[in-house]
Fold:
Amino acid sequence: MRPHRTRRLRAGVALAAAAVVVTGGAAPALAGPHGNGPGHGHGQGHGHHDPDSRRIAALVAQLTVPEKFGLLGGTTGSNGAAGALAGVPRLGIPTLDMADGPSGVRAAEPATALPAPVALGATFSPDLAAAYGGVLGQEADALGMEVLLGPMMNLVRTPYAGRNFETLSEDPLLTASLAAPQVAGIQDHGVIATAKHYAANNQELGRAGIDVHVDEKTLHETELAGFEAVVDAGIGAVMCAYNQVDSVQACENAELLTEVLREQWGFDGFVMTDWFAIHGPDALVAGLDVEMPRPAAFPELAQDVDGDGRVTERDLSRPVRAALDRAVTGVLTAMDQVGLLDGATDDPERAVEENAAVARQVATEGAVLLRNEQGTLPLSEDALGSLAVVGPTAATPLIGGGGSARVNPDAGAVESTVDVLAAAGAEVTWATGEDLEGELVPGSALGGGTPLDRTGDAALTGEFSEAVTVTAPEAGTYTFHLQTTGPGAQVTVGEEQVASTQNRFGALGGSLIPTSDGYLNDSWTVDLAAGEQVAFTVSGTGTAAAPVQLRLHWTTPQLRQQRIDEAVAAARGAHTAVVFGYNEGTEGEDRASLALPGFQDEVIAAVAAANPRTVVVLNTGDPVLMPWLADVSAVLQMWYPGQEGAEATVDLLTGAANPAGKLPQTYPADPARTPVSDPANYPGTDTDGDGVPDEQTYTEGTNVGHRWYQATGTEPLFAFGHGLSYTSFDYSRLRTRTGRDGMEVSFVLTNTGDVTGTEVPQVYLGQGSAAGTPAVQLAGFDRVTLEPGERQRVTIQVDERQLSVWNARKDRWEPAAGIRPVLVGTASDDVRLTDSVRIR
Ligand code: BGC
Structure:
């Protein structure tokens, strides 16, 4: 047993009061008693308080063993919850309905679709993180949820990982600094937050059980930093991951669940499995508390051993008895801490407008201006008077990524960027460029048959299965599009599914971008010779109540060229061209390539060749390769910007807002040179030959993300912390001072440009003569808004933790003694001031 230690988080940031104006949902006072009638909600007046251990012990003493086990296994929830824990009404223990996810509350009813967490990461703003958490808490409360299944704390370790959009950053300090206020923002509304997925769940490939080999020092200094910070912030729940950590399932890993989480960090809430991540009843004694979404293994422990006709304490072994009480105590403690044991109150109403304002502010402040040559942005009057806009996501915004993080926004909340630009007075010509919809495959290509068009009166109401053979009229690359409404359909070639718009992660699947007339769409691409045939089967099940409207479209080589020609013609006739690029990050799969999907690189290159003033707006959740970079004037990374994305994008393009976001992940220049280019490191080794990786080793050690680029001298495409502004900043007069609690770094920051702007100054520590530290590390940051000509002395507190290393032998942090360079700058690759400090 390690000594229990309490430590308050000091994120290493000192915020300038004027830096952020936070509106809306953060205030728990918004939750009024004017709700939807008596619910099981908890609304107003609750919030974070110290759990009453006597009250909890008294409840535990009154619970029978079956009731205790009943609190440790999931059940079906209400209002589209991902799951629930049934309460014990006779003792006033409420039901816990649990909703995903990190970027908005995922329920049957609509909720505010916030920008993806990666956009929050790019704000570098603990204040906005608190506001973002406030929206999640307020809406979870309003929608009858007691547990919010977020935030996701796993670091971005590989640029390929499908859920990179769903987490905050590759940097431990940045992640910790934003997660802690976010959790407080959620829990202030009487909702239990959940840190997921504990731990080392950094990719989707093989996630169901890959064995991650990572040393203890690396874990503590990188991946665990965010988890530890939210435990310090009082988080009520932790979700253990699907994967193994050093050959032990994360959900039955005593070292992680008991030694680190409870004994070292003092966690007193409950640990739940990721969905179906239970492997056996031993997990309870190892430190797992709750199995989701159903009881599966723990009931094996609740046997009537003594045959007296009931299950009581006497039937349990001593370790199981102790673990059972620990688990139940954890669930009740998490409830009590947010006021859930104080009796039900009405659910408040969603603070729709305030929450939308937070969504818009985060989308705006998290946008990163990657490149801006000759002041192309903000768009001039001339540009706005003659603008070509290209790309499907300019018209049908991609507001969020896929999987359990997908949120269902209010009807009418999401606008098209083309429409918002036009409303702002721009003269816009739009062309799709990359055609995601195509056109109906004609009967002539189907052996003279009729097109596959079961829409309108022809909608399918029973089980259906149609064999389709298409003959290519000419050689080239064909993209087929399955487009459906209702319960959807799938396309199979032999045994293999190549497209599906059917249920996935509890929602209908397919592309995240529907067709312009609202059909779900899923595409697949094949190269065909002239006259070559492809055969596949389209199948599914409709009902009278939910018929499947279905049609088969394609984009032929000829149509593809036509779309590029249209985009080029629009760009050639315009003063400036803006091309929107996208990718679709999702839970359940990693990206196979870092390139923009489909033919988007060709479209951008063609537009850039036609118009020297070409701007690229990216809606991606992670880095993409940019083979056309040198040929375009500007690149604005908008991420998946949430339901207010169009408004935020237009504010930034027109200069109504000034970009201030910084990259929370490094953009690689070359896919062969990333921290994970060794296959044993990522995706891992397939030891049983089933095509899925089973083992991997985090060979980069503590040099995760930007640290690796620095350690190996590898040039990225865009470095961690990079992000331009419409103004410029000057740094001068650096002072550093070490003290008992860490180090103080101060310098003078001046806005040397013509417009008000916000800068995120960053403090890095080099390795110097200290042993065991990474090549470079982010040690602190701030966010400062200055008017033109304004200057300010900025002081950044570097926490003691940033000056320490984990001693795995002694299981404790120790000062990293030595002389270390202090680097202050506007990005990890744009250092403006340097000094050095002696750490004792
Ligand atoms: C995901 C979790 C999510 C859970 C419930 C799992 O597949 O990994 O992040 O909270 O499903 O939807």
